[in-house]
Design brief:
With 63 residues, the chain is mainly α. It is built from three helices and no strands.
Amino acid sequence: YIYTDLKSKVYRTKPKTIHELIQRIRDEMALIPFETNRKVISTFYQRLAYCQEVNGSHFQHLL
């Protein structure tokens, strides 16, 4: 979810330079609420644990 949302905002218009792209990413990241970041990080760690549980195999069935 967050990647898709961030990408659509950053690429609303095509950045002209790599520096503009980087700045847009930074600007949009700064607007993401703290609670959203907390949830994303929590979910990431949960998925890492599932990945370890199945020794790196597919784990979508555990979600």
